[in-house]
C-alpha cells in the first residue's frame, strides 16, 4: 500500500499532506488544553469562583471541539464502534 492510499482507505476526504497538517494542529490544541489546565490550577488559589470555572470550561471546550472535528474528518460512527461490528 502506497502512502497516497492511506487517506482513501481510512475514509478521509483530505489528502495525506492535509491530514498531517490538521492532525498536527489538533495535537497542538490538545497540548495547549493540558498546559492551560495546569496553569489554571497553579495560579488560582480560590477555585470556587465563577471566573475559574468558566476558564476551565472554555479550556476543555477546545479539546471537545478538536476531538469532534477530528472524528468528523475521519467519518467516525459513534453509534457502533468499528471493532465491535456484529453480523
UniProtKB/TrEMBL annotation:
**Tagged with keyword Membrane:** yes
Domain DUF7703 stretches:
18-72
One Pfam family it belongs to: DUF7703
Q: Which InterPro entries does this UniProt record tie to the protein?
A: DUF7703
TM spans, by residue? 20-41, 50-70
**4Fe-4S is among the record's keywords:** no
Q: Which UniProt keyword terms apply here?
A: Membrane, Transmembrane, Transmembrane helix
Q: Can you name this protein?
A: DUF7703 domain-containing protein
The protein's organism comes out as Penicillium subrubescens
Amino acid at each position: 500500500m502506497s502512502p497516497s492510499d492511506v487517506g482513501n482507505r481510512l475514509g478521509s476526504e483530505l489528502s495525506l499532506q492535509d491530514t498531517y497538517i490538521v492532525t498536527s494542529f489538533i495535537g497542538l490544541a490538545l497540548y495547549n488544553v493540558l498546559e492551560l489546565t495546569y496553569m489554571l490550577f497553579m495560579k488560582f488559589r480560590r477555585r470556587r469562583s465563577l471566573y475559574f470555572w468558566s476558564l476551565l470550561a472554555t479550556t476543555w471546550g477546545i479539546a471537545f471541539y478538536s476531538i469532534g472535528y477530528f472524528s468528523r474528518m475521519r467519518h467516525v460512527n459513534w453509534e457502533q464502534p468499528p471493532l465491535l461490528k456484529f453480523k
